[in-house]
Amino acid sequence: MREIEIKLRAPDLKSIESKLKDLDVALSEPKIQEDINFIHQDDKEWFEPSDGRWTYPRLRIQPGKPLTFTVKKPIKNEMDCIEHE
Questions:
Q1: CA gyration radius for the chain?
Q2: Dihedral sign from CA coordinates of 84, 3, 63, 38
Q3: Residue 58: which residues within 8 A CB-CB, separation 6 or more?
Q4: pLDDT, tens digit, 9 for 90 and up, residues 71-82
Q5: What is the residue-wise DSSP string for 26-61?
Q6: Which region holds residue 24: left if phi is over 0, alpha if psi is between -120 and 50, else beta?
């Protein structure tokens, strides 16, 4: 699976939620998760565009769910990755 994430600052969540509801967007309940990325302290370039040579493991912890082990390979940057669970 290829994962492309977009993260934005949202200073006014209520306003954004209201606008999404006006557009008939159905929102799910919030998800709580903790990711533990295993990146060696010397691998400062892991998030730079690469040929896929920077691969790292991650554990995802979610309440009420089993641990998920993932291997991520950044493609263009830390937000554009190939991910294997």
A1: 16
A2: positive
A3: 35, 36, 37, 38, 69, 70, 71, 72
A4: 887 777 666 778
A5: PPPPP---EEEE---TT-TTTTS--SS---EEEEEE
A6: left
